[in-house]
Design a protein that fits this description.
By secondary structure, this protein is mainly α. It is built from 6 helices and 2 strands, in the order αββααααα. It has one domain: Arp2/3 complex 21 kDa subunit ARPC3, CATH 1.10.1760. The longest helix has about 35 residues. The structure holds riboflavin.
């Protein structure tokens, strides 16, 4: 990465970090899942400069948010895996919006729903909500809600990123 790339990653990370405070739960029965628009900033940078820069923005805003607000390792790691996977898949196939949107939204949502089978039981123990088996039973009840949350979150991110990028993409000398 050149000096200019590092400066841009810094600016975009600061912006994404700020946006992460806007987190809202989309579905009341899985309120530990929260939507915030910070991945939009990472995806716009990624499609204009490269996947590595976008993933760096997701990583830096998550580390900052962990220390500034959340203090929750499981939540922040899940947020990073979801954001990095989404940005990488969407950017890799960005030339075809149909393929890119289906692969990134579908792939990230399937992966995250699968990972939740393990992290929800773990989260139950950490939060003292119950045993791992209570957590797994809860997962079996709400797995489709977790899937819907992810599809909603990343569909919103994808559409807004594509729309905003149409207007600001030229600032990077592309699109
Ligand atoms: N974020 C996602 O984008 N997709 C997920 O599937 C997802 N699963 C999570 C599971 C658990 C148990 C926790 C605690 C968080 C998860 N998150 C997920 C992150 C969450 O939505 C939020 O961004 C973080 O907790 C930071 O506040």
């Amino acid at each position: 990465m050149k000096t200019k790339d590092i400066a841009i990653v810094g600016i975009f990370s600061a912006l994404a970090f700020g946006l992460m405070f806007l987190e809202v739960p989309l579905l009341p029965f899985v309120s530990f899942l929260k939507y915030d628009p910070s991945e939009i900033v990472a995806l716009i940078l990624a499609v204009n400069t490269g996947i590595a820069q976008g993933v760096m923005v997701v990583l830096i805003k998550d580390i900052l948010f962990y220390f500034a607000k959340s203090g929750d390792v499981i939540g922040i790691v899940m947020n990073f895996i979801a954001g990095a996977t989404f940005v990488a898949l969407a950017t890799k196939f960005w030339k075809s919006k149909l393929i890119s949107s289906i692969l990134s939204v579908g792939g990230t949502s399937a992966l995250m729903t699968g990972l939740n089978a393990a992290t929800v039981p773990l989260y139950f123990i950490v939060m003292k909500w119950g045993s791992a088996s209570d957590g797994f039973k809860f997962f079996l009840k709400v797995w489709w809600g977790i899937l819907v949350f992810n599809v909603l979150k990343f569909s919103i991110d994808y559409v807004l990123s594509a729309l905003i990028n149409k207007r600001v993409g030229s600032l990077f000398g592309s699109e």
